[in-house]
Amino acid sequence: MARWRFVGRTAELDRLQVAVTGAEGRGIFFTGSAGIGKSRLLRQGVDALPGDEYAVWWIAASATTAAMPFGGLVQVLPVEQPQGLSPAGILRWAVEVLQQQAAGRRIVLAVDDAHLLDPPSAALVHLLARAENATVVGTLRDGEQIPLPIRALWTDGLVEHAELSPLTQTETAGLLAAILDGPVDGGSADRLGRLSAGNPLLLRELVHAVQGSEELAERYGIWTWTGRLELAPSLTELIDIRIGQLSPGVRAVVELVAFGEPLGLRLLTKAVEQADVETAEERGLVTMVKSDRRLDVRLAHPLYGEVVRRDCPVSRTRRLQAHLAELLEGVGSRRREDLLRVAVWRLDSGTAQDPSMLVAAAGQAFARYDVPLATRLARAALDAGGGFDAAELLATILMFADRPAEALGVLDAVATDTGDEARLSRWLTARGMVSYWGLSQESTVTEIARRGTELTDLAAQARIRAFEAIMRLHRLDAPAALRLAQGVLDRPAASVAARELARCTIAHLHAVQGQLRRSATAVDLVQAKAAGWRADMPYLQLAVELARGTRLALSGDLTGIDTLVADEFADLADAGDFRLGTGYLAILRAYAARLRGRSDAALQAALGACAVLATSQVYAGLAQAERAQAAALRGDARQAAEAMAEADRLHAPSMAVLYPWLEQARAAALAAGGDLTGAVAQLHGLVDRLRADGFAGHETLALHDLVRLGEAAASTGPTCSDGSRRTVAQRLAELSEQVDGELPPLLARHARAAADGSPAQLLAVADGFTDLGLALPAAEAAAGAVQLLRQRRSPEVTGASERLAVLLGCCDMVHTPTLRAATPALTGREWQVARLAADGETSRAIAEQLFLSARTVENHLQRIYSKLGVTGRAELKAALRSIPGHDGTSAN
Predict the structure, then answer these.
(1) Domain 556-674 has what CATH class?
(2) Backbone phi, psi, residue 509, to 5°
(3) CA 412 to CA 172: how far, in whole Å?
(4) Most exposed residue of 14, 261, 529, 887, measured as fewest CB within 10 angstroms of its CB?
(5) Are 769 and 762 in contact (CB under 8 A)?
(6) Is the peptide bond prior to 262 cis by the omega test (within 30 degrees of 0)?
(7) Looking at the domain that runs over 10-163, which CATH code has it been given?
(8) Under 8 Å CB-to-CB from 324, ≥6 apart: which residues?
(9) In CATH terms, is domain 781-881 a member of 3.40.630.30?
(10) Has residue 229 got a pLDDT over 70?
(11) What are phi and psi of 877, to 5 degrees?
(12) Which of 79-88, 164-173, 312-321, 635-644 has the lowest mean pLDDT?
């Protein structure tokens, strides 16, 4: 694998640069574990120094050179040393040699692995650090004996001393993208980051281990890793070196922790000697972590566990796992997760005999959204004789693992084991969920309604009605959905899970109708009752997030979306391979990034959602629609059209309630392709449909899309009694009094300002959007003002252009029809001339650089001034900053 591109470490690199080039001129030494990236950081920093100002010498100390006097400096000192000098004299001679070679430039001595320097070399480094025109920088490895002259560098205040921490999550994702030459989905990046513990060397080896296997795949330009790992020999050797030779007692500690972590210290010392635990901790093999009132023991690095578990013989592995289960059972389960841990140990050791324990453990794993583990436990429970309970749970889990046909087979195998009505209602709802959402069989709704009428048990009926309600909402039968859901809430016999599922239906319906406050209240009530429904219906969380995400998106609440995609559910979904949850949250991330004008982040998030949901029947069409929106924002008409074709192919009829998002994306794709007439017609048709469905929340956004396309004064809706029709602006004004939140009145103001042709009001609206963090609509409102002022040749166009430039500076590549209309295109040559003129170059200098005559340059400038509506160079720079990118790059 080739040397990878340097990414991240911005703060550390800046600190290194300041330590060398700053006024103080102090050096710096970075300390960190092996492979953390110290050497690469040091090399990156010193390589950037200009050779005409700095004389840079690189020293790579090693165990080989440590045995020789001045062995560490063999790369920079002459081979022949003067004879007869005292040790102090040799040091002075060496400093003089380096001063002569520097020839007046400032000396920079970079010492990699300074802990391996021989004593004379260490003394020379210390002496050189005291020189007026020299700076010393270097690296040290954690846990190594440091020569006293090197340690004295920072104790004497000659250099700074800094700990190099592991890579952050963002830096890990960046490094992965550099290694794989393409972005990695968030869940895969997180898993690889946790395994490598932020160590770049280990991360590189991990990628090397999975590359070329079926476990690492690229979809829609996004790399995804399944999480299964075959350790490469180089990686195993690297970890073996770190672990080293172990005594039998210490090996027992490491193996028990590898199979049982986190393991309570008290529990561990029941199986091994305390002294062996202390030795393992001293050697950096295990670490102690405070957890509530318990002290847990963990391996010092996640990969230690991978190597130890792989190298452990099967018979000993099973014995250790059974022993761990016996230990925990012996002291009694004190924490909720103890049942799950015992079940896994029993299963893996071949000693699991209690199907009820396996069912309970599978339920816990599913409640944590760990789909692979839950599947394994539930299947084991079914094989062990778990009966209906195991089958129902396994089928539900398989549904959310995108294996609906298999789930249906599991349920049908226990169709005759339904027993009482309570069990029958569970079987009907599980089967209905699989057939409706998993297999898109719309007849399921009618069938489940019919079967529900045959039940006499009120709690069983309520469960059926709650599922029927959300199915009817998703197939756009809103009145029936509301009636059914309200009926469940009014029924005292309904279980907590049934009631809260019904409340989710109402919350979603309130959101699309624009009753955002009522929707928020309903979602909060559902979350408050989570302890009562989590074990019964953990998947209800998806309904919660869909209702909440819809409300946040319709209200333009970017802060709320940020909070949602960063909460515990997001972490659990990513870690547990709960793809529906991960995919939907990625769609919300893309939506928020798009409104912020961050088209690159929007497209990456949307592509990640498409990759994660590639086999889904639920949100795949929505993911492709958001990809189309992000591509359209960037002006990528081809990708937008491709994404819409995929959205139409993948969108499930069982999720018809999502149609507003898809149809808005279709209009955006048409506009990106230059078909503005088609886009406008598409939006007018969508507005009519939304009005008929009562989806006022969505209607405000669709109407605003018409405003963005210059249709604020266009007629919309049915003909009134006097023969007139409302304009888009008038309809938005009406909705602003019906739909909750800060956004609808702002959208109405935008429409009114556009219809009235008021630049001042458009700029005021831009300020309103900016206050909400909505950089894209803010830029479009400002662009509308600039366009009007330019048409009127108003002297205020310069100030408006500067405001537009600031807003575009908050965005990256954004190419919407509004922005294109406000920023006339320049030819390639005009663009070059304009950029040079804005940078202060004279006409003669421009002519020389572009191989033109001075007269041609002046002619170009006059055309540029005319196109941009400016009077000279003084206004040119601000005008250029308001122009979206030329050939895909920003003019800023």
Answers:
(1) mainly alpha
(2) -65, -40
(3) 45
(4) 887
(5) no
(6) yes
(7) 3.40.50.300
(8) 256, 259, 260, 263, 341, 345
(9) no
(10) no
(11) -60, -45
(12) 79-88
